Amino acid sequence: MRPSNSRRVRQVVLVVVAAAVLLGVNVPPAWSYIDEWRHEQLINSPDYMRQYGHWDTIDVPEPSRVNAIHAALLSSGKVLLIAGSGNKEDMFATRALKSLLYDPTTGQSRMIPVPDDMFCGGQTTLPDGRLLVAGGTQRYERLDGAVTNAAGTMTVKNEDPNAPMVLPAGTVFVSPTGIRYRADAETALPPATKAGQGRRTQVTASEKPVFVEAIDAGPAAVNENPAQYQIEGLPSDVARNVYGQGQRMTLRKQDYQGTNKAFTFDPVSETWTRVSDMEFHRWYATLTPMSDGRVLTTAGLDGTGEVLNGQTEIFDPRTNAFVERKDLTHYFPTYPAIFETDRAGRMVYTGANAGYGPAERGREPGFWDTDTGTFAPIPGMRDPDLLETAGSAFVGPVNDQRLAVVGGGGIGESPRSTGRIDYLDLRDPAPHFTPGPTLPEGVRYPNLVDLPDDTMLISGGSRDYRGKGGTNNHIAQLLHPDTGQLAPAADPAVGRDYHTEAILLPDGRVLTAGSDPLFDDEQNLVPGTFEQRIEIYSPPYLFQGARPSIADAPPTLARDQTATIPTPDAGHVRSARLIKASTATHVTTTDMRSVALDVGPAANGVSVHVPKNPALTPPGPYMLFLVDDRGVPSVGRMVSVGPGRRALPD
Ligand SMILES: [Cu+2]
């Protein structure tokens, strides 16, 4: 293995210090100065940057600092960093909910309030370029010992087959002994369902869970037994049909709760719009774009803090609504890494996930067929118990159908992590994981970014849970898909553990943001500070001299279309890539993909051909890159690709 950058620097410094000792210079005070000076000299030298690239730290001015939990590249070329409450309960309480629009070409930024707490929601880009964010935080967790009022899940039932029922947030449920509990969210119940005829008619009540909390503090409101609860204020004829069933009301730890709200962000008007609610409340949901333009919505914690039991729904951008798919019931932990394969409707779950769920359920990687609902496990993963907080992504062009699973850690607050990289070749007749290289350090929360030269940047992360014990990995690597091997990249200055993200910019650089350490010191005594600096990586290809250029590009490209791309550098262009404008959060970047286009000659430029298979190119905004014979990419041009197999209107 090659020495890390810091080791290379130390070697240089050793030589300098040895010389200083010979000359009788006072070494100890000189050491740190020489070390730092030599380091700066080295990492800013042209030779170094040509080989390892370069990082630039951006200290965003105070009014524009956010706790970046989510990042998305928009079709405008700007980056939206979403904080919501930013994992700060005081911000949640005062509804100081933020997003920051950052323009990487000018460095300008603008704060845009968000209409609800999108902290830890799911996200993806829609075919028309809007960003969809679904779910987020309805309520912060309460740890053991911090719970003052007994609380629990109320299953609200509606036995009336003729009328839906909406119970507003704040609805009060009364126990058989007269204790009052208040619901923290609205409950919308459809009518009950009827089956059969006449006297054989069977009515099945509709039901929805809602979290309720005793109005009075103290143990008197604890009730460990199931009971039926009346709803305060309902007329008696309605109360016959609508009531609550509580399992137990306790003072135990309460997990985060998800919202059912969903919003889109329009990159043109730069405004948020509420769309229809999800069928389920979700915190830590995964949104996977599908080849037909719809969005598969899976997993999360529900409105009572429980892991969803496999309920799946699909968002349709034509109706702006979610519809449950009752036939899709596979159980996943939160933020499961689910990608669409090159067969429309056939999903692959790499086993990577982030957050919540039992050790024994939903952890196994597999193919999930959304046409049949079946799930087929994929064997061969190394360190299968270290997949929480792992990263996964298509590596190289998506046409090659090869995924990499990178790093990860044990479940929950486990100190264990791995540097394992395993590959999965979906083209194999019997797909199975095969061993790839190992990172120099174990890593949770690695940021993975596909670059236009087909390498993948792996950066950031920490060895222990949320950077505990000062374990942030200050290293970066470039994974080469042709050899399957790693090469060291320059070291980032900023450490990034939990709540971090990275995305490719149209100019070929990579923006990294966020990091939410549990502690700021190695002794784990000082509470952690959210990292608000942005750091941008310029890969080695930006230090090789002139870049090929794109003189013009069509605003849209269709599947199976051949288009001429005018360029003065046609003689040197070797490849063309469409890289999807992706979103990133919690190691779950399900919409990142690079599509290889066939390149041919054309007058005053090159011709490019878009693959016919829609499952390779889900509709939406992409960056078009021309790449020359040295692996140097042009600046990316934003183009819209689509529509899917079920055509979407303009
Ligand atoms: Cu989170």
TrEMBL record:
| SUPFAM superfamilies registered for this protein in UniProt | E set domains (SSF81296), Galactose oxidase, central domain (SSF50965)
The stretch of residues making up the signal peptide is: none
Q: Where are the transmembrane segments?
A: none
Cite the Galactose oxidase-like Early set domain residue spans from the record. Answer: 547-641
Q: Which domain of life is it from?
A: Bacteria
Record Pfam families: GlxA, GO-like_E_set
Which segments constitute the GlxA-like beta barrel domain? Answer: 150-249
Q: Can you say what this protein is called?
A: Galactose oxidase early set domain-containing protein
- Origin species, per record, is Actinomycetospora aeridis
- Give the lineage: Bacteria, Bacillati, Actinomycetota, Actinomycetes, Pseudonocardiales
